[in-house]
Structures are given as C-alpha cells and as structure tokens.
Amino acid sequence: MHIENIGTFGKLKAAGYKPKSIKEEIRENLIKAINEKHNVFSGIVGYNDTVVPDLETAVLSGHNIILLGLRGQAKTKIARLFTNLLDEYIPVVKGSEINDDPFSPVSSFAKNKLLIDGDSTEIEWLHRDDRYAEKLATPDVTIADLIGDVDPIKAANLKLPYSDERVIHFGIIPRSHRSIFVINELPDLQARIQVALFNMLQERDIQIRGFKIRLPLDIQFIFTANPEDYTNRGSIVTPLKDRIESQILTHYPRDIEQAKQITLQEAKISNPRKEKIIVHELLRDLVEEISFQARNSEYIDSKSGVSARLSISAMENIYSSAERRMLLNKETSAYARLTDLKSVITAITGKVELVYEGEQEGPFKVANILIGKAIKSQFLKYFPNPERNKKKENDNPYREIVAWFNSGNNVDLYLDDDYNTYSASLNAVPGLAYLVGRSVKELKNERERLLFMEFALNGLAEHSLISKLGLERGLRFNDMLSSMFSNQEDDYNDDEPYL
Hints:
Helices cover about 40% and strands about 15% of the residues. By secondary structure, the protein is α/β, with parallel strands linked by helices. The chain folds into three domains: about 5-250, P-loop containing nucleotide triphosphate hydrolases (Rossmann fold, 3-Layer(aba) Sandwich), CATH 3.40.50.300; about 255-380, Helicase, Ruva Protein, domain 3 (Orthogonal Bundle); about 385-499. The termini are far apart.
C-alpha cells in the first residue's frame, strides 16, 4: 500500500511516517540530488559555477534566501525550481486552511479536529506543486493580504463573536505553512508591511486585529529584489534584511554561447516553424551581441540592466519576420536575413531604459546604433579588418566592392524581397561573392552564401567604407560621398528607423 493512499491519522502513525520541517525536507532532498548528480536547477544557464553553489550552501544551512540582481536574471525561475526539492506528497489535516501537519497542528481547527477524532482524523495528501506560493510586492499590498484579518461573514455564518479565533481569515503567508513562499521585488513593499514580516521570519508570532496568535509556521522564504529599486522606488528595511540569512547575487550570461542557450530555451517558437524557417548561427550571434552592446552602451542606464527577454523577443521577431516574407511570397520555407534585424527594433525599444544622452538620440536611433555595433563587432570574426586594409593597393579584399559603389552604383535590399530578387541584388556587386568565398569557410548552401554577402555589405557600412541608408521597408547601400550630398527625401524619412 502506497503511503499516499492512507486516509487517517492512526494509519499514518502505524505506517511509521516521520514528519520533517520544510527546511529539513529541502536539505535532505538536495543531499540526495547531489549524491545522485541530479541537477535540481535544470534550465538555469550560466550559473553552475556562481549562483547554484551559493543556493546549495544556503539550503544546506537551512537559510531563508534573497536573490538580488537586475531584471531578466532568472530570479523568479530559480525560486520556482525550489519545488523540485520538496517531497512529492505530504499529509495534512483534511479541511485545514493552512496545511496543518497532523503530528503538529497549529490552527484551532486542526487542534480541535484531532482532539475530537483522534486517530480517526481524516488526512489528505498535498502535492509539491501545491506547496508554492508567490506574491508580487506592490505598494497596495496590505497586512491582511499577507497575514490575515477578521472575516465578518465567517463570524456571522458561524454565529461567533469577533473575539473568537475562528473568525480569522488567514492571509497568504499562513496559508503557505509547510510550503515555499516567494515575495518578488521586495523593496516595493511598504516599510510598515515589511516590519510585519519580522516576527514571521524569526519568532513566528502574528498579530491580527488584536489577536495575539503564536503560529509556529514552517515556511521556506525566498525573496527577490532588483538593486535599481533601492534608489528608484524603495528599500529593504535593515532589520528585515538582517533576518534573511543568505543574500545571493545573480548576473547576466558571461558569454554569447550561454546567452544563445538561454534564448533557444526560452523563445516561444514551435517545432513546425523551426522546420520551415532557418535562422543561421550568425543571426543568433548578432541577436545576443545586441544585448551585450546594450549593457555596455553609454545611452542605456546600466543600473536598470538589459533583460534576457530582449534577446528572446528579438529572436521571436526574427522568425516572424522571415515567416511573414515566406507567406507574402507564397514560398514553402524561409531563410532569415540581415534585413530581418529591422524587426528587432521593436524588441529593443521597450526593454531598455535610456539615460539623458539616449533620450536625446531617441529610442529608435539608439536601437539602430546597437544593431550597428553588434554587426561591426561580429564582422571582424569572419572578415579581415577593413582599417588595416585601407592603404593596401594590391591585396585589399574590399577594393573591388568599394570601387563599384564609388562608381555610382547602389544596392537596395527590401524586407519582403523574394529569393530571386534578393539573390540578384547581392550577386550584382562584383567581388562580393569572392570576398565571402575566401573569408567564410565551409558554406553549406547558396542561401548561407547570400546571408554572408548581405552581412559583408552591412559590415563594410559599419566600417564606413560604403554607406547604408534606411528605406521604408529595407536598406540602400551606396558610396559614402553620394550619401552625404544627395537628396534622399523620396526614399528616406528622418522619423523612420534605419539600420
């Protein structure tokens, strides 16, 4: 007989069940996971040598935890993964509002139930997924929300005076007894509400409308906070911070490979779309490079941070832009292009906080600057440095391309161009295919070759060998001199984003 099938307290005792505190439970399950080399924090990328060891240390110490880091650093995801460290089921007194342990009841309901029914007291089994509670700290959160209040309806229905403890309606914290309770963005919680948490963390006394109730609540507390909040919106009061035993710092991915892994994991792209739409590693690198450039940009507030959600949303837009082109041209498949980076702008502008200089430039222009810097940085991984080749006469790999543009030629690449139009536009540039062929090894197919040809034009524009102008639905490449003096009113709108 599985222990989860036991329905009374007496049978539970006879089966030899031994209750544990939640911190003991989490600790024992972590020890078991470590011994079995099982990663309970699977899906958290880039933290194996930093955050995860600190989390494991805190759990082994039986600590309450605060995760401190900028937005988009998987703080809430980490907290939710703590359910992996809980037992699959635990017994509770049937009908209890606060998950009473039949071996150690804390509510008046459970105490009376056990006193009257004894070993016949009915129990039910609570799954670990139901032992997680989360609250976003906002200025309108009240003590009643967290701890509880007198319920006049309950008093009327039960015909009880307000002085009877049974009229209390418990808040989310007592209802999280024997569970994990998470408060996100702790500094946003009003100071007087934070004060109410003092005793919950240590003495476990709660005060509700004059009732002095001692509830030895058994809770694993996890808090999250953003350093930006300390100055912009609020702070964690010192006595509360002192009662949270372990403070663990999170961080952004340290390299592009980690960042790509996170984006691949989190982006909502169905398998059928992945089969029809190919996004080359070059574009994946560029999307992540945009985030890295943003985190180091003088236009963006570094204290605010640049969330991993920027890259995730950008990648989703890359797929959707290529898919839209496929649908418009009635094609059966699509290969993402550099022009699809135009769709990334909407993912950037809403996810960065600009400093004063950035506000002067404008969010669209800042987004294009970031895309340009990402292209310039990645360009040097594939092609010779243009700065070192400018003065070379005989062995300059870019001379033929630049000379063609300087002769008055230009190339227009539109976001919705079909494959044939796209291919013809790029192959019209003499020397471009040869440059890609000698610089990029092991090209798998023609579409990959065309992608790198487009990338080469963008890279040369970022290194100021040719010019790049934003059209309404695409880009124009031409020579630097004509771009300075020609009138582009018909093709270019100053309010339109450009790449």
